[in-house]
Design a protein that fits this description.
Elements (H helix, E strand, L loop, with lengths): L4 E2 H8 L2 E3 L5 E2 L1 E2 L9 E4 L3 H9 L4 E5 L9 E4 L2 H12 L9 E2 L4 E2 L4 E2 L4 E2 L4 E2 L4 E2 L4 E2 L4 E2 L4 E2 L4 E2 L4 E2 L4 E2 L4 E2 L4 E4 L4 E4 L2 E4 L5 E4 L4 E2 L4 E3 L5 E4 L4 E2 L4 E2 L4 E2 L4 E2 L4 E2 L4 E2 L4 E2 L4 E2 L4 E2 L4 E2 L4 E2 L8 E3 L4 E2 H11 L2 H21 L1
Parallel strand pairs: 4-5, 5-6, 6-7, 8-11, 9-12, 10-13, 11-14, 12-15, 13-16, 14-17, 15-18, 16-19, 17-20, 18-21, 19-24, 20-25, 21-26, 24-27, 25-28, 26-29, 27-30, 28-31, 29-32, 30-33, 31-34, 32-35, 33-36, 34-37, 35-38, 37-39
Antiparallel strand pairs: 1-3, 2-7, 22-23, 39-40
């Protein structure tokens, strides 16, 4: 279904100031290069703003104080955030299972199902599960015994929530994610690897998003904890007894070793590796591909393998680029010394 708003109505929603005709009809949102007369776009830099004001877009979202020339638009404090709110309005609706329980799903008699729940086909819900109001389970989801899922949580196809896991309110779990598999725990005795029972659980707090094919292991004892508002990308591995603080960002292909702790507000970029029993202080940033083997104080910014302060790593990388020239000079010095020895 098509959606339409006036420029004034949209400005009110995103908390901005309309510029130009407030009655201008906005029917969609698009990137600068694709936007047409009925679309609104956004510009974060002067270069993009110049393209936007000269382009086909009907309107542009820009920062307070920017000159839109003759282009209608909305001036805001943060154009990217305002555009994200705009996309929420104009994004196509995601299909949902109808309200109720699909006839092809299996729900244990002891499960407690909240009001307005939507359960698609081939979902399995085991004994003593508690689903809050408005929970949506897409086809093929498995919910193990004694799991608790809070109001408004959405779980996409083929995700697995193992026994005794607790999921908070308004959580989004994407397809193929597995929450509560056994942690990787073994003890080697007499040249054999013996499995250590993983008796703990996983606690996912409110407003968390977990990407496709991400795995969060249950604790050996106690709980693996994902803090409120944390957002986890696809293909992330979180080991047993890890504690992740509130509002963290963890990007794709990151691996976090068992019993590590990630402080609130920290960002782990793509393909980061965190060794086990490591503490990352709150507000830290670990750059993509870094490997962290030691504790980091709050507010750290590290990169490299092994991870070190980012400025130090940049100096090392700059020096490494000079190594071929340095080696060539050393070879030349060695050649001259050999000649001197032969002539002496």
């Amino acid at each position: 279904m098509s959606k339409e708003l006036t420029l004034e109505e949209l400005a009110r929603i995103v908390g901005g100031v309309p510029v130009g005709d407030p009655r201008l009809c906005i029917m969609g949102a698009a990137a600068v290069e694709n936007a047409g007369p009925g679309d609104i776009t956004f510009a974060e830099s002067a270069k993009i703003l110049e393209v936007a004001t000269q382009g086909r877009a009907g309107a542009v979202i820009a920062k307070h104080g920017e000159d839109l020339k003759t282009k209608p638009g909305i001036l805001v404090e943060n154009p990217r955030f305002a555009f994200a709110k705009t996309l929420e309005i104009f994004a196509p609706d995601i299909p949902r299972p109808p309200e109720g329980i699909h006839k092809e799903s299996v729900v244990a008699e002891s499960a407690i199902i909240g009001k307005g729940v939507r359960i698609g086909p081939k979902v399995v819900i085991e004994a003593r599960v508690v689903l809050g109001e408005g929970v949506i389970l897409y086809p093929g989801v498995y919910i193990g015994e004694d799991v608790k899922i809070g109001d408004g949580t959405v779980i996409y196809p083929n995700a697995v929530i193992r026994e005794r896991v607790s999921i908070g309110r308004d959580v989004i779990i994407h397809g193929g994610a597995i929450i509560g598999a056994c942690g990787f725990g073994f003890v080697t005795y007499e040249n054999e690897h013996h499995k250590i029972p993983q008796t703990g659980t996983v606690i996912v707090e409110d407003d968390v998003e977990i990407g496709a094919n991400t795995c969060i292991d249950r604790a050996t004892m106690g709980a693996t904890i994902i803090g409120k508002g944390t957002k986890i990308d696809n293909l992330v591995q979180i080991g047993h007894n890890v504690r992740i603080g509130d509002r963290c960002i963890i990007v794709a292909q990151t691996g976090i070793g068992g019993s590590s702790e990630i402080g609130e507000g920290s960002i782990l970029a793509g393909q980061v590796g965190i060794s086990d029993h490591v503490t990352i202080g709150p507000g830290s940033l670990v750059a993509g591909g870094a490997e962290v083997f030691t504790n980091l104080p709050p507010g750290s910014f590290v990169s490299g393998r092994p991870a070190r302060p980012h400025k130090e790593q940049l100096k090392i990388e700059a020096a490494s680029r000079k190594l071929p020239d340095v080696l060539e000079k050393l070879r030349e010095l060695e050649r001259r010394l050999n000649e001197m020895e032969r002539s002496g």
